[in-house]
Amino acid sequence: MANDKTAHWKDLLRKRLASAKQDGKTEEEKKAEETELFTKYYTDWKGGEKGEDDSFKHIPRFYYRLPAEDEVLLQKLREESRAVFLQRKSRELLDNEELQNLWFLLDKHQVPPTTGDEAMISYESFLKVGEQAGAKCKLFFTARVYAKLLHNDPYGRISIMQFFNYVMRKVWLHQTRIGLSLYDVAGQGYLRESDLENYILELIPTLPQLDGLEKSFYSFYVCTAVRKFFFFLDPLHTGKIKIQDILACSFLDDLLELRDEELSKESQESNWFSAPSALRVYGQYLNLDKDHNGMLSKEELSRYGTGTLTSVFLDRVYQECLTYDGEMDYKTYLDFVLALENRKEPAALQYIFKLLDMENKGYLNVFALNYFFRAIQEQMKIHGQEPVSFQDVKDEIFDMVKPKDPYKITLQDLVNSGQGDTVSSILIDLNGFWTYENREVLVANDTDSSTADLDDT
Q: Is residue 351 within 8 Å of residue 232, measured between CB atoms?
C-alpha cells in the first residue's frame, strides 16, 4: 500500500516538472514550485500512511507573551486578573473560625489512651473528621499526610497537636505566598529589590517589636532587612529572588517572629531583623564614618570589629566590591557585615573566597595563602609577637580542608570541610588567627570557669 502511494506521488511530481519545462519559467520559480509540490505530496503521503491522527494540531498553548510597556490596557487587564486570582486563592484558605472548628472536631474524635499529655487520633477517626471538616480541609486528610506524622505509637495513631500544627503551617505558607505575590509586579514568581522593600515597609506597622522605631529610620531598617534576603538568596546578583526561595528559608520566620510582644532580649539580639540588631549595625556604620560623609573609606573600615582585619584583605574588599570614588556605601557595608558575621554559611564563604582568589582562578594555591598570611605575620611583628611559620599554617589549613586536589583549595572544598570559617579567619584577621592558635588554652579556661561556677553553687 505504501509503495503504491509513493509511486503515485512520484508520477505526479514528474508530470508537473515535465509540464513546467514547457512554461518558460525561471529557475527560481521552478525550484519554488518544486519545493511546494514536494512538501504537499510528502505531507499527504505521511498522513495517509499514519492515518488521520492530527492530534498535533490540538497542542494547548503554553506560552503567553507579556504585555509591552506601551500596551497599557493589556497590562491593566493582566494586573486585575492576577488580583482576582489571588483573592480567589485567599478565600480557599481556612479562616480562624474554620481552624477552631477543625480543632474541636479533632479533639472530639481523639482515641485513648493519651501519650504523655498528647491527645491521639486513629486513622479511622482521622477520616471521619475529614468528612465532617468541609471541602477546604480535604487536602489535609490523606493517607500521605497521616503517614508523614505517624511515628512509634503502638496503636498506629498520630498526635492531634502535630497534625493541627501541620495544617496551621500549611495555611500560613499559603497566606504568606499570596501576600508576597501581591508585591510581584512582574507576575513571574519572583520579587525584585524594590518589591521586597515595599513588602517589608508595609509590614513594619504589624510587628509590635518595631513599634519603637522612628519613621526617619524606616528606610535604613528596610535596607538592612532586605540585604539579608538578597545576600543569601541571590548569590549570582540577578536582582531578584524567587518567592519559593523566600518561603523555604527561615528569614521570613525570623522577621515575623517580631509579632511576639514578649520576645526575649536574647532572641532580639540574635535576630537580624529586630530593632536592637538593626540599630546596632547602623550605629556601627555611623561610628566608623569619622568624616560624616555617609560613606566609609578603607581607613575607616579598618576599625571594624576588633580592628584587626589585615590591610591586604581590606585592599581586596575595595577592589572587588561596589564603591563610589573609593568609598563604601551602607548597602555594600551590609554585605560585608553579613559575610563576616556568618562565615559558616556558603554564601558568606563565597563572598570571602572571591576576595581571597586574587587571580580569579577558582581555587586557592600556596601562593594565595602565603600572600594573605604574610599580612598576619607583619601584624604579629607590630604587636611584638613572634611570627608563626607559614609552612606550619599552610599544612594545618590543607589538613583541615582535605581538598580533592592536594595543591588547590576550591570554594566547594571549603564548604564541604565545615572549616571555612576557621580558614578565612586565619587568613584575614589577626584576632581570628590568635583565637585559632590559642584554642586549647581558651577551651581549658572555659572548662575551669565552668567548674568554678559549679563549685560556687
A: no
Cell numbers at 443, concatenated: 577551651
- Reference 277, options 245, 251, 311, 242; nearest CA is 251
What is the chain's pLDDT, residue by residue, as a tens digit (457 residues)? 556 656 666 676 677 666 655 556 677 777 787 788 777 777 776 665 445 556 666 777 777 788 888 888 988 888 888 889 999 999 999 999 999 999 999 999 999 888 788 899 999 999 999 999 989 999 999 999 999 999 888 999 999 999 999 999 999 999 999 999 999 988 889 999 999 999 999 999 999 999 989 999 999 999 999 999 999 999 889 999 999 999 999 999 999 999 998 889 899 999 999 999 999 999 999 999 999 999 999 999 999 998 999 999 999 999 999 889 999 999 999 999 999 999 999 999 999 999 999 999 999 999 999 999 999 999 999 888 888 999 999 999 999 999 999 999 999 999 999 999 999 999 999 999 998 888 766 555 555 554 445 455 4
Which residue from 351, 354, 362 is spatially nearest to 232, judged by alpha carbons?
A: 351
pTM given for the model: 0.77
- Burial zone of 68 (CB within 10 Å; 0-12 exposed, 13-18 middle, 19+ buried): exposed
* Residue 450: Cβ-neighbour burial (10 angstroms; 0-12, 13-18, 19+): exposed
